[in-house]
Amino acid sequence: MNTQPILIIGGGPAGLEASRGLSDLGFQSILVEQRDVLGGAPIHHNYAALTPDMRPAATAMGEMSAAADAAELVDIRLNTTVTAASGTAPNISVTLSGPDGDQDVSVGAVIVCTGFTHFDPGQETQMYGYYENEDVITLVDAERMFKEGNLVRPSNGEPPKQVCFIQCVGSRDRQIGNQWCSKVCCGIACKQSIEIRHLLPDCRVFVFYIDMRAYGFWEDELYWKAQEEHKVSFIRGVVTEITKRGERLLVKGEDTTMGRPVEVPMDMVILSVGMEPSAGTRAMSALFEIPLESHGFIHTLGGPLDRVTTGVPGVFAAGASTGPADLEDSVTSAGSAAMKAAAFVTLAARGTA
Amino acid sequence: MNTQPILIIGGGPAGLEASRGLSDLGFQSILVEQRDVLGGAPIHHNYAALTPDMRPAATAMGEMSAAADAAELVDIRLNTTVTAASGTAPNISVTLSGPDGDQDVSVGAVIVCTGFTHFDPGQETQMYGYYENEDVITLVDAERMFKEGNLVRPSNGEPPKQVCFIQCVGSRDRQIGNQWCSKVCCGIACKQSIEIRHLLPDCRVFVFYIDMRAYGFWEDELYWKAQEEHKVSFIRGVVTEITKRGERLLVKGEDTTMGRPVEVPMDMVILSVGMEPSAGTRAMSALFEIPLESHGFIHTLGGPLDRVTTGVPGVFAAGASTGPADLEDSVTSAGSAAMKAAAFVTLAARGTA
User: Fold this and answer.
1) Which residue of B186, B330, B336 is the best one to mutate when testing the A interface, meaning the one whose CB has the most A CBs within 10 A?
2) How confident is the model at residue B124 (pLDDT cuts 50, 70, 90)?
3) What is chain A's mean pLDDT, rounded?
C-alpha cells in the first residue's frame, strides 16, 4: 500500500524510537532534528549515565541513533527545522529548512517529539543564588561533571565534603507559575547521590524533598540503594535560603519531619531543576495549530486512554512534548504514537480515515 | 504480506488497545480473555469513574470493547485460556481452551496483557482488621459503592461522618514482602476523596500517606482539587493500629509532619491496597517460560529504553503484567507492544527477523 511518509519532529529518544519502529513496520518517515546530532537532551546536555542501569548516555543514545540511521525507511535531516505547514492530514505540506535551503514535502501524518527545556533556576527563583554562588549548580551541570568523572567545587576546584540536593526547583511551585511535578527529578537526584558516593566516598550527601516520587525502577534501583547502601540522608523539608558562610554555603530551611529549623553548611548545592515546555514544542504548536494544555505542553485528547493523539487530525505527540516524561515514558509513548500514525496513514490510504 | 496472527492474552485496557491497534495497522490478532466479558479490572471489579476525567468506567471500557469487537482483524475468544504452548516465534503453537473445547493455533508473536491482582489486606496485615471490622474496606470495595452511588457504613447502613484512607497497604512494605510502590493508589485515594465529598458533603475525609506520589493529571485534576476545593485533609503519617471504640473505629498512629501521635475516631477506613502480579501473569510466565523480575512481574529487557520486550523472542508484555501501571501506562505500553509485535512478524515474513 502506498502511503505518504510520516514526519517526525525531533531526534531525541522519542523521535528515534518512532522512526526506527515505523521503518520496521514498513513505513517511510522523515526525521527532522534542529541540531547537528541525534540523541536529544541526553546527548545535547552531556548526561553521564542513564537510570536505572547506569549505562553511559552516549552509548545508549548512540545505539538508538545508529538504529535509526541504519533503518531503511528513515530519512534523517539534521540542522533542519519545520518552518511552514499547510493542508490537512493525510496531505500536509511542510517546508523543511535545512543546510541546503528550503524544501517542500507532503506528509501523511506528523509525530511531534520536541522534548522539554530544563528550568532555569536563576531566572525566577532568587533565593537559591544560582547566578551568584558558583557552588550552586543544577542537575544538568552535575551531569556534565559526572561525565568528566570529576565532581569539584567550581569556586576552588576541590572535591566537596558535603553536598545537598534541593528538590522541586521550578516544579510544584505556584509562585513561579510551574505548578506541575516534573516526575523524574527525585530519581535523578537519587542516581546522582549514588554517583557522588562512588566518586567521593567521604562526601556526605543530603536530599531535601517534599515527596519522594520514585516508583518502579526509580525506587528499586535508586531510592532504596541511595538510602541503604550509600547512606544518603533524605530530609523531608523546605529550603528557604542559601547564603555564603566563609568559603562554604549555608543552607537554611525546615526539616518538616522533625518539625525544626535546619541550618547546614554545604560545599556544593545541586538544584533539582524540573522540566518546562521546549521552544520547539511552542513553535510546532503554533505552526500546526496544536492546542496546548494549561502548563504549555501539548494537549492530548483521550484522557488516560490516549496520550498521543492531539487536537489536530493526523498529528500525534510523544515524549516530553506532552508533559514531564522519563526515558521509559518517552520511548513507550513514541511506540504508541508510531502505531497510531501508521494506522492513520494506512486507513487514509484505504479510504476509511 | 502474509503474517501469522498475533496472540493477545487478556482483554483489559492493554489487550483491547493492542488488538484494535493491530487491526487498524492491518494485522490479524486473537484476543483471549478468561472471563465472559472484556474490559479487565475496571469492569470485573465494578470501578465507578476513571481518573482523571471521572468518566464512568463502564462507558470508557465499553467503548474500547466495542472498538475491538468492531475491528475487522480481531478474533475475540471469551471464557478462554491458553493452556499449552510450544515452538518459537514466529511459529508458536498454542492451545486455546474455551467453551468449545481445545483448539490448537499457530501464532507469530504474543502480547501478554494479564494485568494485576489487588493486594488482599486481610491475609497478611492483621493490624488493619479488614476481616474483623466491617467498616474497614478497600479502594476496590469503595469503587463498588460509588458505582451504586451509595457510600454507607457496612455495619449499620448509615452514611459515615468521618472517613480516612490509609495509603501503601500492601505496598512499600518489606514486612509482607511487597517492597514496591503501586503507583496509582495515591491518585485513586484523591479521586475517591472527591467522590465522597460529592456524595456526602458533611463527611470529613482524611488521607494518611508516606509520600504523595501524584504527577501529571493525578496532581492537577485530583490531588490539588481534593486538597483545595474539597478540603480533604492529607496527613503525612503512619497508622499502626485500628481498634473498635463503641460503634466507631479508632485509628492510631503518628503524624510525622507534626511529630506527634494521633488517635482519631472514624466511621469508615478505606485501605489503599496495592497491585500484585496476577495469577494469569504467573501462569503465562510458566507456560511461555518468560522470566520474571524480583517482585514477580514480567521482566522486560531494555531497561528504560524498552518496557515491552520480554526475555522470550517474539513475546511482548504490556500493562500491569510488567509492574504497577495506571490506565495511561497500560494503553501506551500496549501501543508500543503492538508496534513491536507487528514489526516482529513483518520482519519474520521478510525473512530478516
Assistant:
1) B336
2) low
3) 94
Provide the sign of the torsion angle of the four alpha carbons B157, B158, B159, B164, taken in this order.
negative
d(CA B160, CA B158): 6
pLDDT of A13 over the 90 cut: yes
**Residue-wise pLDDT tens digits, A150-170:** 999 999 999 999 999 999 998
CB contact under 8 A, A215 and B60: no
Q: What is the pTM of this model?
A: 0.95
Compute the nearest-CA separation of A132 from chain B (Å).
31
More confident residue, B6 or A349: B6
Task: Tell me the pLDDT tens digit for each residue of A175-193.
Answer: 888 889 999 999 999 999 9
pLDDT, tens digit, 9 for 90 and up, residues B264-316: 999 999 999 999 999 999 999 999 999 999 999 999 999 899 999 999 999 99
DSSP per position, A145-210: HHHTT----TTTSPPPSEEEEEEEETSSBTTTTB-S--SSHHHHHHHHHHHHHHH-TT-EEEEEES
Q: In whole numbers, what is the pLDDT of chain B averaged over residues?
A: 94
pLDDT, one tens digit per residue, over B166-209 is 999 988 888 888 889 999 999 999 999 999 999 999 999 999 99
What residue of A is the nearest CA neighbor of B297?
A216
Under DSSP, is residue B180 helix (H, G, I), strand (E, B) or coil? coil
Interface of A with B in 4-23 (CB under 8 A): 13, 17, 21
- CB contact (8 A) between residue B304 and residue A53: yes
Is the CB of residue A261 less than 8 Å away from at least one CB of chain B? Answer: no
Q: What is the CA radius of gyration of chain A?
A: 22
Which of B179, B301, B339, B344 to probe by mutation at the A interface, max A CB count within 10 Å?
B339
The reply to whether ipTM tops 0.90 is yes
Please list, in sequence order, all residues whose beta carbon lies within 8 angstroms of the beta carbon of residue B262, skipping any fewer than 6 positions away.
B235, B237, B251, B252, B253, B254, B255
φ/ψ region of A39 (left if φ > 0, alpha if ψ in -120 to 50, else beta) reads: left
Cα(A50)–Cα(A61) distance, integer angstroms: 10
- The better pLDDT of the pair A141, A170 is held by A141
Is residue B353 pLDDT above 60, yes or no?
no
pLDDT score for A353:
47
User: What's the average model confidence in pLDDT over A180-207?
Assistant: 96
Q: Which of B328, B345, B352 best tests the A interface by mutation, with the highest count of A CBs <10 A?
A: B328
Are A21 and B339 within 8 A, CB to CB?
Answer: yes
Put simply, whether B55 touches A (Cβ < 8 Å) is yes
Give B127's pLDDT tier (boundaries 50, 70, 90): confident
Contact B336/A340, CB-based, under 8 Å?
A: no
Contact B31, B318 (CB under 8 A): no
Rounded Cα distance between B48 and B116, Å, is 18
DSSP summary character for residue B5: P
Answer whether B31's CB lies under 8 Å from B17's CB. Answer: no
The CA distances from residue B272 to A63, B91, B188, in Å, are 41, 43, 8
Contact yes or no for A328 and B336 at CB 8 A: no
> Across the interface, which of A213, A257, A308 has its CB nearest the CB of B256?
A257
List of chain B residues whose C-beta atoms are within 8 Å of the C-beta of residue A236: 236
Tell the burial category of A179 from Cβ atoms under 10 Å away from its Cβ (0-12, 13-18, 19+): middle
DSSP output for B20-85 = HHHHHHT--EEEE-SSSSSS-HHHHTT--B-TTT--BHHHHHHHHHHHHHH-TTEEEETT-EEEEE
Q: Nearest 5°: CA angle at B298, between B296 and B301?
A: 130
Q: Are A253 and A240 in contact (CB under 8 A)?
A: yes
Helix axes B13-25, A327-349, angle to 10 degrees: 40
